[in-house]
Fold this protein.
Amino acid sequence: MTDVLVVAELLEGASRKSTLSAVRFAREVAEATGGAFDILTIGEGAEAAASQLAAFGARKIFTAEIEGGYVAERYAPTVAAVAKDGGHGVVAATATTFGKDLLPRVAGRLGAGVASDIASVSVDGGSLVYRRPMYAGNIFGFARVSTDVQVVTVRQTEFEAADEAGGYTSAEAVAVVEDAAASRVEFVSLEAQKSERPELTEASIVVSGGRALKSAENFKSVLEPLVDVLGAAMGASRAAADAGYASNDLQVGQTGKVVAPKLYVAVGISGAIQHLAGMKGSKVIVAVNKDKEAPIKEVADYFLAGDLFQVVPELVSEIEKAR
Amino acid sequence: MKILVPVKRVADPDNANKVKVSADGARVTSEGLEWKLNPFDEYAVEAALRLNENGASGEKLGEVIIVSLGPDEVQTTIRQPLAMGADRGIHVKADDAELDSTVVAKVLAALVAQEKPDLVLMGKQAVDGDSNTAGQVLAELLGWPMATFAMAIETADGGKTLTIGREVDTGVLTLKVTPPAVVTVDLRIVAPGSVRNGVTPDAHKYGEGARYASLKGIMAAKKKAIDVRTLADLGVTDGAVVTYTKFERPPARTGSVRFVESAQELVQRLKTEAKVL
Ligand SMILES: Cc1cc2nc3c(=O)[nH]c(=O)nc-3n(C[C@H](O)[C@H](O)[C@H](O)COP(=O)(O)OP(=O)(O)OC[C@H]3O[C@@H](n4cnc5c(N)ncnc54)[C@H](O)[C@@H]3O)c2cc1C
Ligand SMILES: Nc1ncnc2c1ncn2[C@@H]1O[C@H](COP(=O)(O)O)[C@@H](O)[C@H]1O
C-alpha cells in the first residue's frame, strides 16, 4: 500500500492543468497498491486552487498559503513536512520547470531518491518500477528507488490529465515551515510571455519553425499564418529561439518543452537529436524542408520537400480551401 | 569568488541515437562513441570563468575548481576545463554504477565542506541520464539557496549578491541570491551578454558558446594539479539509491516517411489518410 502526495503547481492563484498529470499518476499508484492519494496546494491562492481540485478523488487536500512569488526554499520545507506527517511513500509533481526545481530539493530534505520525468509506472513484487526516457529519449530505463520515501516527477505528455472522479474533498490548512536558506533568496519578478494561442504542451496541433525562417519578421509573416489557420500552438527549435526569432519558452526539445500533439509540423528544422527528444511522441509528424536528407525524415510521416518561403503560403491557402 | 564546478563525461550526445542496449537488456552500451564533457557542464565552466575574470584584460578574479566523479578516465574530462582556464581539479574515484544524482550530491556536499567555495556552478542536467536532480539535492543538503536553469547571472559587488534569471516554462523568473549558493545553468547562459560581473566592461563582447582551449591553455593544463579522492575519503559509502533493472529502445515510429509533391497533396493526405485536419 503506497500513499502518494501530489504537489499542485499554481500560477496566478489557480492550479495549472499540468497538475492533473501528476494526479493521474497518483491515482494509478494508489489503485495498483491499494493506497490513497492526497494533494497539497502551495503558494499564493492555495485555498482557491484546492476547490478547483476537489473533485478528482483525493483523500485529503492540504493547503499552504505562501505569499509572493515562487521560491523553492520557501516551499520545500512545507512539502517535506506534509509528506513526513502524512506518511506518504511517494511525493509527486509534474515535470514542468516548477516540479523539476522543487521536488529534488524536497527529496534532499527527506533523504529520498528521485525518479525524474517518468513515462510510466508499474508494480513488480511490491515495489514501484518507473520507466523513464534517457539519452534524449533514445533509451528507456526501468528504475527502482530504494529509499523509504520516493520522489517522482512525471512527464506531462505521458500522463493524460486526470478527469474528475466525482465527490468533494474538502481542504485543510497546514502550517508553513520556514528554513534559513529562504532568507538568502528573494523573488524579484516573473516575466511571463502572454499569447492568445493554445499552450504548447496542451495543443493538439503544434507548428514549429527553425533557423531556416531567418528572422523574427518571417516567423510573423510566414509561419504565423500557418499556425493560426490550424489553430495550433507555435513552437521553435533552439537555433530559432537562440537567434531571437521566437521567445525561449517556445523551444521544443530535450531542454525545451516536450510535446506530443496529434499533428506536429516542423518547418525548416533539421531534426537534431535534441529537437527530436521533444516531439517524436507526436502522432503525425510533417516536415517541411528543402533538404530531403535532413535527419527529421527519420521521424517524419510526411515530408514536403521545398523552399518554405514558397510552400508554407501554399499550405495556408490549401488548408483554407479544404475547409 | 571561489567557484566549484562539477563536470560529468557523457557518451557523445549528438550520437545519442547510437547508444545500444545489451542483448539481456541489463546495460546501456556506448561502445565506439566518444566521451564528451556534458554540454551543460561545459556551459557552467564558461560561466564560472566569465564570473571570475575581467573579460577585456584577461585578469583573474578568483579560483575555479573542477570536480568529476568516475573512473580514472574522467581525468581526461577534467583536463578540458583546466585547458579552458580553470585552476585545479579534483577527481573522486568511483565506478559509474556506484553513482546516481543522490550520491553525486552527497559527495559534492562533503567537498564543499572542505573547500568552502562561494558558489557551486553546475549543469542543470547530465544528458546521458537526463535526471536534472543533483544540483537541487546538493543545495538542500547544504542548506544553501539555489537558482536552477540559470540563463543570466549578474553581480556588481564582487559576488555578495547575484541576480539570476531562470528559464522557466512561462518565461523568465528572476531571483536575488546571497551566496554561498548552488546555481545550475541552462543553454543560454553562454550567450554573449549573459554573465555580468561588474568588472568586465559592458562593451566587451563574449563569443556565442563556451570558449575553446588555446594551445597554450592545453599545455598549461598538463601542469595543473588534480587531487584524487575516494568515496570512502568523503564518507559517502551508502551506494546509489536509484538503480536500473532493465533498459530498452523505444519502439520505432511506425512506417516510413512519405515524400509528398505539393502542398495540395499534403493537405489531402492529412485530411483523408492521416485524418488529422
Ligand atoms: C545541450 C544541448 C541541448 C539542446 N537542446 C535543444 C532543444 O531543446 N531543442 C532544439 O531544437 N535544439 C536543441 N539543441 C540544438 C540542436 O542540436 C540543433 O542545433 C538545433 O535543433 C538546430 O535547429 P534548426 O533545426 O532550426 O537549425 P538547422 O540545424 O540549421 O536546420 C535548418 C534546416 O532548415 C532547412 N532549410 C534551410 N533553408 C530552408 C528553406 N528556405 N526552406 C526549407 N528548409 C530550409 C535546412 O535544410 C535545415 O535542415 C541543443 C543542443 C545542445 C548542445
Ligand atoms: N559523475 C559526476 N561527476 C561530477 N559531476 C556530476 C556527475 N554527475 C552529475 N554531475 C553534476 O550534476 C549535474 C546534474 O546531473 P544529473 O542530476 O545527473 O542530471 C551535472 O550537470 C553535473 O554538473
Q: What stands out?
A: The mean pLDDT of chain B is 96. Residues 82 and 221 of chain B are 5 Å apart (CA to CA). Chain B touches chain A through 87 residues (CB under 8 Å). The pocket of flavin-adenine dinucleotide (ligand 1) is lined by residues A 210-212, 237-240, 251-256, 268-270, 272, 274-275, 278, 289-291, 294, 307-309; B 39, 127, 187 (CB under 6 Å).
